[in-house]
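Annual report, structural modelling task.

Input specification for the S-adenosylmethionine complex:
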Amino acid sequence: MRLGPFQVTFHRTTVNKTLYIVSTPIGNLEDITLRALRTLREADLIACEDTRQTRKLLDHYGIAKPVTSYHDHNEAARTAELIERLERGENIALVSDAGTPLISDPGYRLVAAAIAAGIAVVPIPGPSAVTGALAAAGLGTDSFRFCGFLPPKTSQRQKVFEELKHEACTLVFYEAPHRILETLEDIAAVMRTRPVVIARELTKLHEEFLRGTAAELHVTLAARPSVKGEITLLIGKAEGVEEDDTPIEQSIRALETSGISRMDAIKQVAKARGLSKREVYKLTL
Ligand code: SAM
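The model returned the following structure:
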């Protein structure tokens, strides 16, 4: 039966000897598709990152199926085992702790091995923090680049931002809450006035979107006792204003030579680049 562009199949959806890549909620347990639930119910085996985490989801939906762990540390050995079971005719569902498997989550090795072995790989699409964040961030979506997790050190992060700053698209990152303030400082230093969105705790009780320049968001978050929860960070394209690549000290000196005091020069440069005076001062040190 065809319903416009949609097609609903009423027969058994899962086919033996198939690897299903099943998206699961990123917080709100209601964010799971009917097809995902059916696939999990019909699977011979569910391979999951953390069996305890997936058990909570399965219990919530009354699904009693055998599970096995499949994570970064046992990927190599477990891949061979799972391929063998698929080849014997089983169907297997792969899930991660949250969202879409393989998106900054394990599974690539298994999918590649299944394809190499001629086994069908079927995605069961659903939530992912990338798409959820993009959908409501209010930044351009015609073209975006998902860059996964940022490196932990400032120097490495600034290098990443330097490499990406001329990309004419929205940039999406995953970031840990304990590093977000430092990361915002690095964005402010490299990408200056670009619009930034922090999508925190998507689909959960305390979901929030913070929008502004990196410097503005830094002020907002630094005023909180702590920053908690899961964060997806987005950086928009430069909005009409050309990025100023001039080193900050050079811009200040240029103003000083035109007769402006150093203090006023710092103030002007800070305003032009969407930074606080303190940040500009720090960057000149
Ligand atoms: N596979 C997942 C997906 O499809 O979104 C991502 C897994 S990755 C290991 C986990 C990271 O995704 C978190 O550290 C955070 O950056 C981001 N994330 C996951 N859930 C989120 C949520 N509810 N709100 C905001 N970001 C989230």
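Residues 130-235 form a domain with the Methyltransferase, Cobalt-precorrin-4 Transmethylase; Domain 2 fold (CATH 3.30.950.10).
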